[in-house]
Amino acid sequence: MQERHRKSGTSWISDLARDIRYAGRVLRKSPGFTSIAILTLALGIGANTAIFSVVNATLLKPLPFRNPEKIVALWQTESAPGSYPLTGEDYSDWRAQNTTFEAMSLYSWPSNASVTVGAAPEGATVVRTEANFFSLLGVNPLIGRSFATGEDQNGGTKVAILSYAFWKSRFGGSTTVLSKSLSLNGEPYVVIGVMPPWYRTSGDAEVWIPLNMAKEHLGTRGTHQWKAIGRIKQGVTLAQARADLRALSEGYEKQFPEHNRNVTAIVNPMREDLIGDFSTQILVLFGAVGLVLLIACANVANLLLARSTSRQREIGVRSALGAGRGRLVRQLLTESVLLALAGGALGIAIAFAGVAALRAQLADSIPNPNPIAVDWWPLLFTFLICILVGVLFGLAPAVQTSAVNCGQALKSKGTVGASTTRGGHWLRDFLVGSEIALSLALLAGAGLLLRTFTHLRSADIGVRGDQVLTATVRLPEKQYTTLDQGALFYDRLIEKLQNSAGVRSAAITTELPLLGGSNGFIKIPGRQMDSESGPLVEFSSISEGYFRTMGIPLLQGREFNRADFEITAKVIREAMDAKTSDDAKAIAKKYVLPAVINQTMANAFWPRQNAEGKIFESWVQFRVVGVVGDVKQMRLREGVMPQWYATLSWNLGVPSGPYSIVVQSAGAPPQILGNTIVTAVQSLDPGLAVFRVRTMPQIVAESMQDTSYEAVLLGAMAALALVLASVGTYGVMSYVVGQRTNEIGIRMALGARPIEIMGMVTREMLSVVGIGIVVGLVGALAGAQLMKDLLVGVAPFDPMTYVGVSLLLALVALAACYVPVRRAMCVDPVLALRYE
Known about the structure:
This protein is of the alpha+beta class.
């Protein structure tokens, strides 16, 4: 019995080896067919492998931290919807009183700093962290060490950890960098470590320094300004951790109702927090390349069906010699799988090239520390896809071919004119219709994204920024400590810039359009609000001339004047000198400061009224002196929020914050004013660096980056699908004309005109194309609902898009039919009647 099993196993292996050798010989005998099939499959498999590499890196592969499933991101709620940064006091209480966390760590948003390594200062992005930040993550520096306990307290050692890219660019990758000094905003720091090249979870940080964890530095309740992470204890679930912090938050709400009303904890898994909405985008793209692969499979299946006619005699002979149908199907499937594996091998090469391109384009867009790479999981995915694809496109043709009538096949010469079963004809039509339907779904998705891209590109952001150059500067907090020092610097800077050649006007602002901003709750005296905190609105502080420089229209009232800046500065000076918070509140009640609001804020709170002179409260009372046009402060995809503007003095109580310079060119391209800004800044303080010098059109382009790569990638998949569908249509039409050559000859011999022959052949294909378009429209509508969050300014059901892609696909199908139909019209009746 054991011997029989061994022989059975050996026989199976030897049969498989023979099938593979035979399949190889058959494919070599048809180099044209084999090359086209392999290339078609390679394009589909390669695209799938490349996008799966992104899916694997972002959604499947564990984060490269110690026990990453235990790491969470911590946020808070507020009266307004959404997630908010933490307040210092709430975080300190969470850390001290929780029972479910092994550790917590606080860190700051990325900020700009002037860094001096050599002679001249340069800009760098700095993140401040609690000392245990890297140890909580379980990430060790590439060289050196991470922060030690106590280095985040008042008087702690000034140490810095560098990113790998910063180390390479500023220190040449030298291992002697440890213990070297660099200057951050005029203060010396000692380098103690360099992070690994893959680490980039805390934004685009180039330098990490300890966060001063002193209570007075972290701020009070109600001031949401910090980010935090936590590590849940072993044996504790995410639900338990959430319940723990929410219970603490409920206690704080009762204990501190003035600041903690409606404030509770949000605990998100780290991966979910890092990836965010990107998971929807990448899954849409993965679905798109899956459709391309299905189209490729349908194409190859049609090629196999067309080729099977010429093999009927071969199959008949093998059947007559005793080969059963199961044996024939196995042989034919072996050929299909071998073809798929060859396509997969070429597809891997295409995937490597695709991943390199994706890394170059998406490196800054994918918020994930895992690098995109074709590693073992994508390769295993490719192998499994090859097997599945080989069976998928090979099974129907194999079953159809193996069902040949032995006697009829032996009588036939095996030409293209051999008879075709009704089932074979139906299968070819089904495959072509499927290609058309899948192609239309992809084209519709790409069309909707392209319409979104076009809408965003032409969207009015509220500024005339074609001639505007922007830059950011940050004053060292040790050197610039008072409002008057900051005001003097910026007044002199504006004066220098406005007197520079090529500059029409210049101004300073705390926030630039499309880059996000600050927000806070306001109250309107005498008006009932939806929440006790009042509505949440955006706010910015600006210098004189900001609206003129940015081309923001004044709709009502006036802009700020010098007296407005002086009264605001007076209030800030008195508040900074106040001994207690009660004294500061008493000072605030004495004044009403000027403010300018946008049109949306005027319409929201004083509809059908003159907003000029209206009062609202944000710590102090403000009187509206003017109304200006709306400016998109957040992303292009988002709408305009109510917004108010204060004079620059409102923020200069902390002059070391980052401030943006805006300069309007007098006519020349604004890029040439970059050196003008640097020269003006460093003439006032040689130790200051100028950051992120960009034109407003560049800022707009950056804000559209996610939409542009979505449109480009999905458009590329749709274009590939369109090419494959047209090739498939052409192939089937060529086959149909070949099959009906004898019939065409008879019709022409009986007096049919060429135009009638053309109509007969074209109608057959257009019926298939029409059904495919109808089915594709249904699929496209379903797919559009899945990607509706990616659309802006266009509805998921957009008639123009669907009509346009349907006409495009019909025209492409007609073009693919042209050559075969033309050939049918030119058939010689005499030759056709001999054709068999």
